[in-house]
Design brief:
about 15% strand; alpha/beta; single chain; Rossmann fold; 15 strands
Length: about 425
């Protein structure tokens, strides 16, 4: 089976969506399929054993000229005119130039005749999908992967807000629904959620979860472990971005209660936040003055380092938004499963992560339940005192997130 993959970025350090896309690509290749990747990463990146073509940006076009002019106007006058542009035409000039660049590269491809064309998105990008819409000869082979709800007003609370040009964006997504052969989602809850907004797809959608790309951590990889982590400590790690809706304040306060109730833990415990700067940094740094056991990174750390950290800590935290439902499958969910450490899941009752971990999973709490979170940290700590190497072995989820299961899905696909 030949699969042409069109993706924004295969740079794993871009964001969680890029990491998820790379793992999916790697597992398709690992499954034995003939994979060709067209990517718009803006740099030469190669995935081991996989044929990759870097898409060049068009720099002689009206859209390119307008996008650069817009940037200069915004920089000079200190105003963002993009909302005005999007209200008028739906998308930025940069978006249109990027789409045209992807479309041009795909039109040049004549040697590789795919059985399927898979477009991968992350966040609100969907540039590869827009490019495919302009290539009707590929629609009967088109697998449109949808990472997140689209557009923003389709997000659940507290994320939902109406974007400039939202009707253009909705019309665009309706075309994806109607023209693609299959819609692919990483989450069953996301599939159900999007069906409440959009109707008319050709076939039943397919659930392809974010993937575990297995790569054993070697002894020498421990050198990637930063100095601020002592692997002999009871470490609780949150790795990843904290958007405004993912509020860590209750977690921090619960950790403070845990230390007060277990004062001996102050000598061998840490709560670590690793990721890009967020709106919570000031709060966390103020807490550090009285709780030195809290650590926050000053900058983003490379993904390879973070994967080693997830393996050696005792608890990995998944922090979800404090709304009524979280239909997303977090990009780091498979990394946490692969790490085989207990997951402290903080989020709503209706959550894809909670659905997969199971109704009786012991370390789930709603985001703002301070007492319960403190109790769960204490329970994990007491288990750690008995066994310093706690293993959470979920073979069912390892299989669900594996290349073997992925291969089964693709073998069953029918054009």
């Amino acid at each position: 089976m030949k699969i042409l993959i069109v993706v924004d970025s295969i740079n794993e350090d871009d964001n969680s969506g890029a990491k998820a896309n790379v793992a999916l690509i790697q597992n398709l290749w690992k499954s034995g399929f003939d994979v060709l990747v067209y990517h718009y990463s803006r740099k030469e990146i190669h995935l081991e054993g996989i044929k990759c073509e870097s898409i060049k940006e068009i720099k002689l076009s009206a859209a390119y000229f307008l996008s650069r002019s817009q940037r200069k106007i915004s920089k000079f006058f200190k105003i963002n005119i993009n909302p005005i542009v999007e209200r008028l035409i739906g998308f930025s000039f940069t978006f249109f130039n990027d789409v045209n660049s992807i479309k041009k590269a795909l039109k040049k491809n004549t040697n590789f005749q795919p059985d399927w064309v898979l477009t991968l998105s992350y966040g609100s990008s969907f540039r590869p999908h827009r490019a495919l819409l302009a290539l009707p000869r590929l629609h009967n082979k088109w697998l449109a992967y949808v990472h997140d709800p689209y557009p923003m007003h389709c997000y659940p609370r507290p994320y939902d807000w109406v974007e400039p040009g939202y009707q253009f964006k909705r019309d665009f997504f309706l075309k994806i629904v109607n023209k693609s052969q299959y819609l692919l989602y990483p989450s069953q809850l996301l599939d159900d959620w999007m069906k409440s907004y959009y109707h008319g797809q050709k076939n039943d959608s397919i659930i392809i979860p974010h993937q575990i790309f297995e790569k054993n951590i070697k002894k020498e990889d421990i050198t990637l472990l930063p100095d601020f982590i002592n692997p002999d400590f009871f470490n609780v790690l949150h790795a990843g971005s904290m958007m405004e809706a993912r509020n860590p304040k209750t977690l921090i306060e619960a950790y403070e209660v845990f230390l007060h109730q277990n004062p001996e833990a102050k000598n061998h415990s840490k709560l670590l936040f690793i990721g890009k700067k967020s709106c919570f940094d000031v709060f966390i740094k103020e807490k550090q003055l009285t709780i030195p056991q809290i650590y926050i990174s000053e900058e983003y750390l490379p993904f390879q380092n973070v994967k080693v950290m997830q393996k050696v800590v005792m608890v990995n935290v998944i922090l979800e938004a404090g709304g009524p439902i979280s239909p997303f499958l977090p990009g780091k969910f498979p990394h946490c499963i692969y790490a085989k450490r207990p997951i402290l899941l903080l989020g709503p009752n209706y959550s894809e992560s909670k659905r997969l971990l199971g109704e009786n999973y012991p370390y789930w709490s709603e985001l703002n339940n301070l007492e319960k979170i403190a109790e769960q940290i204490t329970s994990l700590y007491n288990s750690w005192l008995v066994n310093k190497n706690i293993i959470m072995d979920r073979n069912d989820l390892m299989q669900y997130l594996s290349s073997d299961y992925l291969r089964e899905i693709f073998i069953k696909l029918k054009a």
